[in-house]
Amino acid sequence: MVNLKNENIDIAITCSDIVKTKYFFEKILGLGVVTEFKVDKSAANNLGLAPVGFTQTRFAIGDTKIKLLEFDSTEVNSINHHSGISQGVRWITLYVNDICETYETLKSKGYEFLGDVSTKSKGALVLKGPEGILIEFIGN
Question: Is-contact 97 103, C-beta < 8 A?
Fold first, then answer.
């Protein structure tokens, strides 16, 4: 069994229009933006999350974070076969105590990982889960 660090969970919603979706979460639902940042193509590809860079905006509801993602539009149409490109909820982030231990546990159960596998306990790890949902594990 994977040793989850806490009860927090991040859910990522991939958007075709992050401005419109952000407006809904911020102005209609009244959620405050926690962070906004850009993930470059190299980092996204190395982790196996996406073959292109993306913009991420995070909101918090209690201990749960909702991440809005918009992929760099110049390349999305030509590579939309990647599991993380479709719009909707396609990505869940779980926090674990140790990435190396999580990797060994899941590998022993036959799961395969996308991108680079971290060798540090505080790294990140991504696998393609049921229904094609990306499961991102972050070690703290």
Answer: no
Q: What is the SS3 assignment for the chain? A: CCCEEEEEEEEEEECCCHHHHHHHHHHHCCCCEEEEEEECHHHHHHHCCCCCCEEEEEEEECCEEEEEEEECHHHHHHHCCCCCCCCEEEEEEEEECCHHHHHHHHHHCCCCEECCCCCCCCCEEEEECHHHCEEEEEEC
66-116 pLDDT per residue, tens: 899 888 865 554 454 444 556 666 787 888 888 999 999 889 988 889 988
Burial bucket for residue 61 (CB in 10 Å: 0-12, 13-18, 19+): exposed
Give the pTM: 0.64
